[in-house]
Design goal:
Blueprint lengths: L2 H11 L3 E4 L7 H6 L1 H21 L4 E5 L28 H16 L7 E4 L10
Parallel strand pairs: 1-2, 2-3
């Protein structure tokens, strides 16, 4: 989503709650063949949506992450404290860095916006009992 498009949508709709689940995703082959594209498109989309939500006065934002943001050799089960402690998996490093950038952007926004949230959307959290 381009900056002008997201600003216009948020200005017109003025959502109170935003669920940011959109991303350009691919398998190992797609990720490894288009690293720069995955990083650029995801970072631009995340930054535009998060910033537009903040500018428009959105109350809460849920930014869905991915298990790929954790280090390649993170101890299991993974804990949030493992973020940024060691090397990422090379096959999806660009996508992971984009997701981490979105997370950090949320973290760095002014504290005036007291409703910014990040959620790790790790499929392994959802298991049958």
């Amino acid at each position: 989503m381009q900056a002008g498009g997201s600003r216009a949508i948020f200005a017109e709709e003025k959502p109170e709650y935003v669920f940011l689940a959109a991303a350009k995703v691919g398998g190992i082959l797609a990720n490894s063949e288009a690293l720069a594209d995955f990083m650029y498109e995801n970072m631009i989309m995340e930054m535009n949506v998060i910033h537009s939500a903040w500018q428009s006065g959105c109350k809460k934002l849920l930014f869905l992450g991915s298990s790929c943001i954790y280090p390649r050799m993170a101890p299991q089960p993974m804990r949030e404290s493992c973020l940024l402690t060691s090397e990422l998996e090379k096959t999806n490093e660009a996508y992971a860095l984009a997701k981490i950038s979105g997370l950090k952007y949320c973290e760095f926004k002014p504290t005036v916006w007291d409703g910014l949230y990040f959620c790790d959307a790790d499929q392994s959290l959802w298991t049958e009992r």
